[in-house]
Model the fold of this input.
Amino acid sequence: MRGVARSYAPSRPRPLASPKNRRRPWRKENGELSSLSSPPEKVSGRRPKTLQTKYQSPNSLRQGQTCERSPLLRSSDQSWVQKWTRRSSHVPAESSPESSSAPDREALLAVVSRLTSERKVRPVVTRSGQRARGNFPSIKSPARARYESLLELDVLRVAEVSSLVHVITTHPVVLALPGEKVIHYTPDALLQWPTGGVLIETKASYFLTVEPSRSRIQEVVKRLDAQGVRLALLVESDVRPPGLQDELKTLLRLRPNVGRRRLLADTSRWDPLTREAVDGYTERRWCAAQKACDELLARVMRRDPGEFIASLC
Done:
């Protein structure tokens, strides 16, 4: 009868549909049992990848053609771009500026490792809380870069575009600073380049005028200076000059996507993997932004944080 569902009770349970329990048809040949079909051989290894110098679309890959794409870049603040492009073209620096007093990279990492406490870094990105927090897509960070304020996000943009910084580590460790009473301190970021590095602390100008917060940061600066570590303190006026953050947002949004951090990629280039050609206007904007970020970080690293806090009071 149509429309009536029938159920059949099997005489024995069916085997699971897995490779181990899958039944194979057998036949008898010359008194021996043999399988009708032998299992396929496993292929080891991966398909070799070819290095592409230009971007190739899926349709052109079949025909062997390449297509170059250049996004339409429009700046909302042309005066800011002209300000930095008046000078000569900026060449990415290979190391930190000579005038900065940043310690050697190996010495800095050794001191940080010695001062690291047993405490774990508290989770930055959580479901609760009213402050701005999230993950920053950085190709210079070996792990996921996180921020817990809009000011930290602006600092991460500057470090991402700067040609001086090669490695960015956000909230790396919890430091135990010795003294009459041990102070546990977590820096906001650790910036590294081939010849040095610096600890970054971002703080709003208002909190540097409030007594509890100001006294704590002054004590942290004093104890880190006693250990031979310079702390770079950044406020809103440092990373938010007119037009800078808007230009960095536009460039990072239009920059070719690289994905996860790659050790062999040149992070100072517009396209670290050199997959597509960049037009002259975009290259001038990128070099101007790099120059502005390099000068910003060099100026902050030369500044004494203790004197800067005293000047705000």
